[in-house]
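yo

u said u wanted the structure for the complex thing, so here. seqs first:
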Amino acid sequence: MKKIKLNIKAIPNLRKATMVSIEKLSEKTIATTEIANNFLTDIADASLFILQVFKETFSRKFEFREFLHQCFQIGYKSLPLISITGAIMGIVLTIQTRPVLVDFGAVTMLPGMVAISLIREMGPVITALICAGKIGSGMGAELGSMRVTEQIDAMEVSSTNPMRYLVVTRVLAATLMIPLLTLYADAWGIVGSWAAANIKGDVSYVLFFSQAFKQVEFIDLLPAVVKTFFFGAVIGLVGCYKGYNAGRGTESVGIAANSAVVLASLLVIVIDVIAVQITDMM
Amino acid sequence: MTTDNTDIKMNTATEDANKKLVIEIKNLQKSFGKEEVLKDVSLQLFESENLVVLGKSGTGKSVLIKCIVRLLDFNGGTINVFDKDVAALDRKELAEMRQKIGFLFQSGALYDSMTVKENLEFPLRRIKKGISAKKMKDKIHEVLENVGLADSLNKMPSQLSGGMRKRISLARTIVVDPMILLYDEPTTGLDPVTSDGISTLILDVQKKYKTASIIITHDIKCARKTANRIIMLDAGGVYKEGTLEDFDNAEDELIQSFFR
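structre next:
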């Protein structure tokens, strides 16, 4: 039987190496636990925030003036951007699909195809993503800077509920305005499509629009409009949550604005996937 | 000197006995995580007096007044405002209590998106419900006159200098006739002349509106001008309490470092 020779001199080194490994492992475990803990705390905070928004939404005192002001800020002030985006969507869609349809001799299908694409998918998603960038970041930055400069605290000590005044009005305004902006973008998209169709062909607007709307049914419009309410609510909630809970330094304003855009855009896409699945089952 | 001090103390004690207590804090404790900012703070504020709270940065002076209006929840002790336990107030009672207290923030905290007029109208509409347009206009004009900025009505906060922002912020605080004023470092970041102007304004407000005030500061000139009584915070507790003369005559090194 072969004897195993024990190197006694190596034992302290082995012990040291083991201790270092255990320390590294425990550091990693602590770091992982902290990440998990922070994640769960964030989820709990966000859930409480949403619950509070719901509670304040249905309270008797509603800040109607501020709500109208926010509708103006979110809706009216986004019109130029949404007009350009909508028209470009229609133009690009038409320019890219027309050659294929010409090859198949189906160019008459162009208005209907563009209208359905815009109304069902492109209009809602592109408008929501544009609004997540413009409105979500705006809310995150505005409320974040209000937090940093103690304006939210000042509101609270002057017996005004900042959640009701700042958050509920913005979330409701976004929920109401995004569907309207989407319909507006769809309309500009079809106008843009007609313009693009006239670059290479000659189509009267009466013929183009009648062909476009002939193909669109109520079932195309309904799910698309319903999901935009959710897009609006998510953009408003995420923007306000990030801004309202911003840290105390000026750096946190940038972080709030940035994370609001990223998270709102991501959630818009997630909601869209779910909405498409539900629509498909109908 | 000792006799004078004793006289002052006796006078103060007699005055205190006659005056009504508006804020009473007992054994206040406040921690942020493991860091104990306030370990054991007790103080009293009487009607129509200016109480200056002195202390080094980070001793919890601002935390103290934020606990009074419950912008921060505290971990232990009691705060009574007009004999009501602040910690036990529900949301409606808390809102009612806050209507009696004006809070001047260190940064001014003017609403950036509103003009000076709208900044002043904002608390008036909410606290003085049903106030007529004429009364509101008169009140705004009165407080702006008092802070010497009657011509700034339609300016945006971004168009105002640091001193002007502080003055407008003070106007917004006093426009709703509060009974207690909490000043969070009212002269920080201002030049000596403007600081002196703000200190004078604090005194004028006290005389005109008979308010009781807690003034958080580490500006000794401001403390000398405005204080009826001084409390110094250190290491999470009350280090010394007394009149300006008590502090001037103290031989303690920490106090001397402020008053020298």
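The interface with chain B takes residues 142, 145-146, 149-151, 153-160 of chain A (CB under 8 Å). The longest helix of chain A spans residues 11-57.
cya
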